[in-house]
Specification:
Layout (H helix, E strand, L loop, with lengths): L21 E5 L10 H6 L2 H4 L2 E5 L1 E5 L5 E5 L2 H6 L16
Parallel strand pairs: 1-2
Antiparallel strand pairs: 3-4
Protein backbone atom coordinates (compact mmCIF):
# COMPACT_ATOMS: atom_id res chain seq x y z
CA UNK A 1 0.00 0.00 0.00
CA UNK A 2 1.42 3.37 -1.00
CA UNK A 3 1.91 5.97 1.69
CA UNK A 4 -0.66 8.73 1.70
CA UNK A 5 0.64 12.10 0.60
CA UNK A 6 0.31 14.88 3.13
CA UNK A 7 -2.36 17.43 2.32
CA UNK A 8 -1.13 20.59 0.70
CA UNK A 9 -2.57 23.97 1.35
CA UNK A 10 -2.46 26.25 -1.68
CA UNK A 11 -1.37 29.66 -0.56
CA UNK A 12 -0.84 32.76 -2.59
CA UNK A 13 1.99 35.15 -1.99
CA UNK A 14 1.38 37.00 1.29
CA UNK A 15 0.30 40.57 0.76
CA UNK A 16 1.52 43.52 2.79
CA UNK A 17 -0.67 43.84 5.84
CA UNK A 18 -1.85 40.22 5.79
CA UNK A 19 -1.88 38.81 9.31
CA UNK A 20 0.49 36.03 10.29
CA UNK A 21 -1.22 33.13 12.02
CA UNK A 22 1.46 31.51 14.13
CA UNK A 23 1.39 28.12 15.82
CA UNK A 24 3.88 27.35 18.57
CA UNK A 25 5.25 23.80 18.44
CA UNK A 26 7.21 22.73 21.49
CA UNK A 27 9.95 20.22 20.75
CA UNK A 28 9.51 18.30 23.99
CA UNK A 29 5.93 17.43 23.06
CA UNK A 30 7.30 14.36 21.23
CA UNK A 31 8.15 12.78 24.57
CA UNK A 32 5.36 12.14 27.10
CA UNK A 33 2.63 13.80 25.04
CA UNK A 34 3.60 11.98 21.83
CA UNK A 35 2.58 15.10 19.88
CA UNK A 36 4.21 15.34 16.47
CA UNK A 37 4.00 17.81 13.57
CA UNK A 38 1.77 15.20 11.90
CA UNK A 39 -0.82 15.90 14.59
CA UNK A 40 -1.07 19.49 13.32
CA UNK A 41 -1.89 18.14 9.85
CA UNK A 42 -4.31 15.50 11.14
CA UNK A 43 -6.28 17.86 13.39
CA UNK A 44 -6.54 20.57 10.71
CA UNK A 45 -4.45 23.17 12.53
CA UNK A 46 -1.73 23.27 9.85
CA UNK A 47 -4.24 24.50 7.27
CA UNK A 48 -5.02 27.52 9.41
CA UNK A 49 -1.41 28.58 10.06
CA UNK A 50 0.97 30.72 8.04
CA UNK A 51 3.94 30.05 10.34
CA UNK A 52 4.96 27.27 12.72
CA UNK A 53 7.32 28.50 15.43
CA UNK A 54 9.38 25.44 16.36
CA UNK A 55 10.78 25.86 19.84
CA UNK A 56 13.35 25.74 21.40
CA UNK A 57 16.89 26.65 20.54
CA UNK A 58 19.80 28.00 22.52
CA UNK A 59 21.98 31.00 21.84
CA UNK A 60 25.37 30.30 23.36
CA UNK A 61 29.09 30.37 22.63
CA UNK A 62 30.46 27.54 20.51
CA UNK A 63 33.91 25.98 20.95
CA UNK A 64 35.48 28.98 19.16
CA UNK A 65 33.79 31.46 21.50
CA UNK A 66 31.42 32.75 18.82
CA UNK A 67 27.82 33.17 19.97
CA UNK A 68 25.65 31.01 17.72
CA UNK A 69 22.24 29.37 17.59
CA UNK A 70 22.30 25.79 18.82
CA UNK A 71 19.83 22.97 19.21
CA UNK A 72 18.49 22.67 22.75
CA UNK A 73 17.58 19.00 22.18
CA UNK A 74 19.30 17.42 19.16
CA UNK A 75 17.41 14.13 19.56
CA UNK A 76 13.97 15.77 19.39
CA UNK A 77 15.11 18.26 16.74
CA UNK A 78 16.76 16.03 14.14
CA UNK A 79 18.05 12.69 15.48
CA UNK A 80 14.75 10.95 16.33
CA UNK A 81 13.55 8.49 13.70
CA UNK A 82 9.88 8.73 12.74
CA UNK A 83 7.62 5.76 12.20
CA UNK A 84 5.20 5.80 9.28
CA UNK A 85 2.40 6.48 11.78
CA UNK A 86 3.93 9.67 13.19
CA UNK A 87 5.53 11.10 10.03
CA UNK A 88 3.76 13.74 7.95
CA UNK A 89 4.30 11.91 4.67
CA UNK A 90 3.43 8.43 6.01
CA UNK A 91 6.93 7.07 5.33
CA UNK A 92 9.13 5.76 8.13
CA UNK A 93 12.70 7.01 8.48
CA UNK A 94 15.49 4.54 7.78
CA UNK A 95 17.90 3.77 10.57
Amino acid sequence: MAAAKPPTVPRGKPQAGDPEIVGYFIQWGVYGRQFFVKNLVDNGSAEKLTVINYAFGNVAPNEDGDVVCQSADPWADYQMLFTAENSVDGVADDE
